[in-house]
């Protein structure tokens, strides 16, 4: 035995059959693979950021474990993108029906919230079991509970401590603490997509993606809805956001901007939100209040300091260009727990980072994520989509740019579905002839943005995009007229 209490092992060449002088002792912990609880890789999180490293490293023969304190599958599949889009789909049918009521469509259309929830559950209910089964069939050990660091290479999961040569943190994000009295009365976006019944009065705290998407769903489902927030959809072009805000108000949503909730009071079976706007107090009464005021990396429970991991002021893991912790090289981060420059906290980005991390684990830290041309969509009705630079950011580059912007409400794509609002703005580098940014609002924007995202990512000449042949009549066929 060594002084540290570890069993001595011997690594020998073939010549040890003749002499032991060619043998070397090793008590390196990373060599001891037969101890129960030792892994080559432990992944914290079972969403898009963690799945790729887990499966790819396991396929390479590594001993791998995954751990999650929530049901397996991650935010997108269980609590975010997928269930939300199912709810949006129901709302879209109602909205389209109402727009066409005097134009050939007869009868009534309304949402049955319980039935819509049942349909949503058909997409989510089997995910945790199927995801865990897939891990286990691949030979990946599955652990349930909150993971926290106890050293650079050790994690505690419940009563168990595991040791890993490498650790990937892909734990996602959580609602940002607001630090206001009564915030415990807020429900999260996760709670909203699990509501058995939709309350009559819905308040949305914040003015980002969650607030506007849920407002469009709840309003079409018959609820009285109010949004209370500061700046609406701050990542998007102001011109298009103004039109979306106006459209949101036209469907009956009370949008209060330049405002914040400073306290929440419980009153019998209802809530009172104490709000402030430009120094004036006002109150909002609601049956439910939803947190839509931003999310932060889920690192609070990791005991990151014990793992030798440095966090940013916002709680993200500080990483280098290869998504590796700058202070503990055994640790990588993917998804919402890492916030390098130029990144948007989106599901496809987490998946991209997961693949990058897997490559760096298997081949050495040499591959960097590429965030160019990342499209982003607000799934309101109609959707708002964006890729690349805003006009303001493009002008700040000091290059000559050409900006084209136009209202598209009268264009065929919007008129056909009687979509009440439509607008686009494109920003082109005049000298290079390449697309720097594109911003779309209207029918089909969520799909059309992917074509423009490809152009931004690959630096395609605008002339190539403009003169491509598109299927008609489609929203894609509108793109040449936007350039």
Largest sheet: 7 strands, mixed
Number of domains: 3
CATH architecture of the largest domain: 3-Layer(bba) Sandwich
Provide the structure class: alpha/beta
Q: Beta-strand level of the residues, as a percent range?
A: 15-25%
Proportion in helices:
25-40%
Form type: globular
Say what the CATH topology of the largest domain is: FAD/NAD(P)-binding domain
DSSP helical segment count: 13
Termini gap: 73 Å
Which parts are unreliable, with pLDDT below 50 for 5 consecutive residues or more? 1-35
Oligomer type: single chain
Question: Considering the protein shown, what is the CATH homologous superfamily of the largest domain?
Answer: FAD/NAD(P)-binding domain
Structure description:
It is a single chain. The protein has 13 helices and 23 strands. With 483 residues, it is α/β, with parallel strands linked by helices. The protein has 3 domains: 34-176 and 294-371, FAD/NAD(P)-binding domain (3-Layer(bba) Sandwich), CATH 3.50.50.60; 183-293, FAD/NAD(P)-binding domain, CATH 3.50.50.60; 376-482, Enolase-like, domain 1 (2-Layer Sandwich). The longest helix is centred in the N-terminal third of the chain and has 19 residues, at 81-99. Residues 1-35 have low confidence and may be disordered.
Protein topology:
Blueprint: E1 9-11, E2 24-26, E3 38-44, H1 48-59, E4 64-68, H2 74-78, H3 81-99, H4 113-124, H5 127-137, E5 141-144, E6 147-149, E7 154-157, E8 160-169, E9 173-175, H6 189-192, E10 201-205, H7 209-220, E11 224-228, H8 238-250, E12 254-256, E13 259-267, E14 270-277, E15 280-286, E16 288-291, E17 295-297, E18 331-333, H9 347-363, E19 376-378, E20 384-388, H10 391-396, E21 401-407, H11 412-416, E22 423-429, E23 434-441, H12 445-458, H13 462-466
Parallel strand pairs: 3-4, 3-8, 4-5, 8-18, 10-11, 10-16, 11-12
Antiparallel strand pairs: 1-2, 6-7, 7-8, 9-17, 13-14, 14-15, 19-20, 20-23, 21-22, 22-23
